[in-house]
Amino acid sequence: MVDVLEHLVRAPATRAAVSDLNAWFARLGECPFTLPIDRALWAGFAADRLGYAFVGGYRAALARLFTWGADALAGSTGGTYVWPSIEARLSLAATEARGAHPRAIETTLSDESGALVLRGVKTFATLASAADELLVVASRGIDPDGKPRLVLVRVRSNACGVRIEDRAPTPFAPEIPHARVTLADVMVTSDDVLPGDGYAVYLKPFRTIEDTLVLAAALGHVLGAARAHGFAPSMAEGALALAIALREVAARSPADPVAHLTLAGLFTAAKRLIAEHDPEWEKADATTRDRWRRDLGLLMIAETAHQQRTSAAWTLLGSQT
């Protein structure tokens, strides 16, 4: 089998229209690649729009999170934990009314007479209404040092006490549902609690992993569109070069400050590539062109968080920008 980079430049670039999110999930199941970064690139290339490319990148990011978790916990209980399938439909439910940082988490997991009970409200859970399972960030109290003790809990989306209400569609990529999730006395078991610290092992690294794989999916989509519509070769070449660099970032630890700096540079380069080649989209049909320009806001999500992470990376490395 060819590797994903050969696929991006050799496979037919014509992409069938995707009727809805369920159809896209079915198509994602056809991916022949195993590595999450390769699955993200493949998904972007196969997607008929940037929104569905994002879904492929998001799903691949969760798969990478579990391989990272298994590696980080090697030698502890993480070594024998049964992680979710790479094909699972999942939603990471972290954001609450005050945000997604550790001290903003008010959802609780309580031990009540031997039963574990989950209570709280998540205000913005991506793909929750399309998920089979929710990955809920919850607090089990405060550590002696004053820091929240977070855990990640697997909850079936149809479990008793779970209510999922889709929010109004966003101005860009309205095909991606985001939901308010209410957890009212949801009973879980100890097996539903993922091993390791909910912040250090899952929530914090996921921010870097998601950025990496969603950007990969976007670049795969750019490359596919460039080939499908006869855009200038420099557009496909630029996307391919950035994709190769992203594979290196994806292979590194999401805690590595060098990975953070490289990722920041790749985001800047990708935005420049897209801006410089914007006129090329006039060669595409009107629906494809207008949808692409509408959805570009996806690449600007969490821009402040990106900048903070980059600044922190320079500080860790003892340098100044």
Which properties best describe this structure?
321 residues; alpha+beta; Butyryl-CoA Dehydrogenase, subunit A, domain 2; 4-stranded antiparallel sheet; 3-stranded mixed sheet; 17% strand
Short structural description:
The chain is α+β, with helices and mostly antiparallel strands and 321 residues long.
Could you give the topology of this structure?
Blueprint: H1 4-10, H2 21-28, H3 36-46, H4 50-72, E1 90-93, E2 108-112, E3 115-126, E4 133-142, E5 148-156, E6 162-166, E7 178-188, H5 198-228, H6 233-251, H7 257-276, H8 286-295, H9 303-316
Parallel strand pairs: 1-4
Antiparallel strand pairs: 2-3, 3-7, 4-5, 6-7
Helix pairs in contact: 1-3, 3-4, 3-5, 4-5, 5-6, 5-7, 6-7, 7-9
